[in-house]
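can u do me a favor
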């Protein structure tokens, strides 16, 4: 059996967000629970999602882009204080969770106001892994997911 092929395959798949199940030494990213509450403002909106890392190496979310907004910023909530940050860690064998009242994405300078039922496309950029494109459904302004994010 050749063991050299497994790390090479894991390396190729890690940047794609694939679930290769190897738990190797690279980050293996996937996204779930993505949504945007229908914005009440004409110029700003929030976004939430969970980034899971099944790999053995941490990565960092370094930026987010979307055609629906002039800019998308990443905000960290510590206690009751919210602050914009340049990156957030996605721990090895862990998750980075964006949820109401916690870490979140801020869509600023909206080009149009997304409506419930639409989908907003975002591109997540990481320090080590390749970019990931995510479809974020627009939910009601009062949507509260069962899983808490």
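np, heres the sequence
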């Amino acid at each position: 059996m050749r063991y050299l092929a497994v790390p090479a395959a894991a390396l190729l798949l890690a940047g794609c967000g694939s679930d290769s199940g190897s738990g190797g030494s690279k980050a293996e990213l996937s996204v779930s629970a993505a949504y945007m509450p229908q914005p009440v403002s004409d110029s700003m909106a929030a976004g939430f999602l969970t980034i899971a890392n099944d790999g053995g190496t941490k990565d960092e979310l370094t930026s987010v882009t979307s055609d629906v907004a002039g800019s998308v910023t990443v905000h960290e909530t510590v206690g009751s204080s919210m602050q914009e940050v340049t990156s957030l860690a996605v721990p090895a064998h862990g998750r980075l969770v964006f949820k109401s009242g916690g870490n979140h994405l801020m869509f600023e300078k909206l080009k149009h106001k997304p409506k419930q039922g639409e989908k907003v496309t975002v591109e997540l950029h990481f320090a080590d892994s390749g970019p990931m494109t995510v479809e974020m459904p627009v939910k009601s302004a009062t949507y509260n997911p069962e899983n808490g994010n």
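DSSP finds one helix and ten strands in the chain. hope that helps!!
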